[in-house]
Design goal:
By secondary structure, this protein is of the alpha/beta class. The chain has eleven helices and eleven strands. It has helices at about 5-10, 15-30, 35-40, 50-60, 65-70, 90-105, 120-130, 145-155, 200, 220-230, 245-255; strands spanning about 75, 80, 110-115, 135-140, 160-165, 180-185, 190, 210, 230-240, 260-265, 270-275. The strands form three sheets. Strands 5-4-3-6-9-11-10 form a seven-stranded mixed β-sheet, with helices on both faces. It has a two-stranded antiparallel ribbon with strand order 1-2. β7, α9 (about 200) and β8 (about 210) form a beta-alpha-beta unit. It is elongated. The termini are far apart.
């Protein structure tokens, strides 16, 4: 089996450049083969066991399974995270949200941070490692996600307290509990499914992706309500958002009593994140 053979097998699902990138990543992460090794055709020289493993990987990729799930890892803010079908694969846009949040935490006043819907723990772990003076918590409604997040925290040496919690049913909590709340909640409407890639629809958890068409801001409403109750005065809320509902969300946050609302574009020019402050 050669590199050329591998990437050609994926062109039924991906364009040539993406197919090549996927195969190069597999060869790097799972077989420690550099681009120079690939050019020297060391793929064909893999041991029989490694060739068998590569064949199993290629078969899964040909079925459309995301490469991150196949190799079991994804990268976020320069660190490697374990991922599996129970959690979303971290996206570059979420890295931008995390970096925005980090730029505030760097000022030193932040002591307590909450990540709602933590998934793989990529945001919570990154914040905990980058700002070890802060106490960081991560909530999710999925036991599987919390197991993955906890394993990532242990691997990275991130001090994060993970907890099973549903923001939609949480009605009371102590005031002034958090300095920062950050969240990448489900925000894709059901009607948007037809525009999405099959490898996302068929493999990534619907629970972490979709909201009803008739209530696309359901999680934001709950998070805003909770933030007003529990953020310290001057505390900040950071959210990843659906660009289609940016204006609606600004109104929702204002109606909730939050101020200093700022919307930012992602690297693709889409309104993808928002910040608000508890006065």
């Amino acid at each position: 089996m050669s590199y050329e053979n591998c990437w050609h097998r994926l062109t039924k699902r991906y364009d040539a450049d993406e197919a090549k990138a996927i195969v190069r990543w597999v060869l790097d992460v799972r077989f420690n083969l550099s681009w120079a090794d690939i050019l020297c055709d060391r793929v064909s020289a893999l041991s029989a066991d490694d060739q068998a493993e590569l064949e199993r990987i290629m078969a899964r990729l040909e079925q459309g399974e995301p490469v991150q799930y196949v190799v079991g890892v994804a990268y976020f803010c320069g660190r490697q995270f374990h991922v599996g079908p129970g959690v979303l694969i971290p996206r570059p846009e979420t890295e931008e949200l995390c970096q925005w949040c980090l730029s505030t935490v760097a000022e030193g006043w932040v002591e307590r941070i909450l990540d709602i819907g933590t998934g793989s723990g990529c945001i919570a772990c990154t914040l905990a490692v980058e700002r070890p003076h802060a106490k960081v918590a991560g909530w999710d409604i999925s036991f599987k996600a919390l197991r993955i997040a906890s394993a990532n925290a242990e691997t990275l040496g991130a001090d994060v307290h993970f907890e099973l919690m549903d923001i939609l049913t949480l009605s009371k909590d102590e005031p002034n509990r958090w300095d920062i709340i950050v969240s990448n909640p489900p925000y894709v409407c059901e009607r948007e499914k037809e525009q999405m890639e099959h490898h996302v629809l068929d493999h990534e958890p619907s629970l972490a992706l979709f909201v009803p068409d008739d209530d696309p801001l359901m999680f934001y409403r709950a998070i805003a309500r909770y933030s007003v109750m529990t953020l310290t005065p001057g505390g900040q809320l950071y959210l990843e958002i659906n660009p289609m509902y940016a204006d609606n969300l600004v109104g929702l946050l204002q109606d909730s009593g939050l101020t200093d609302i700022e919307v930012r574009n992602d690297q693709y020019g889409k309104q993808r994140m928002i910040k608000a402050v508890r006065p």
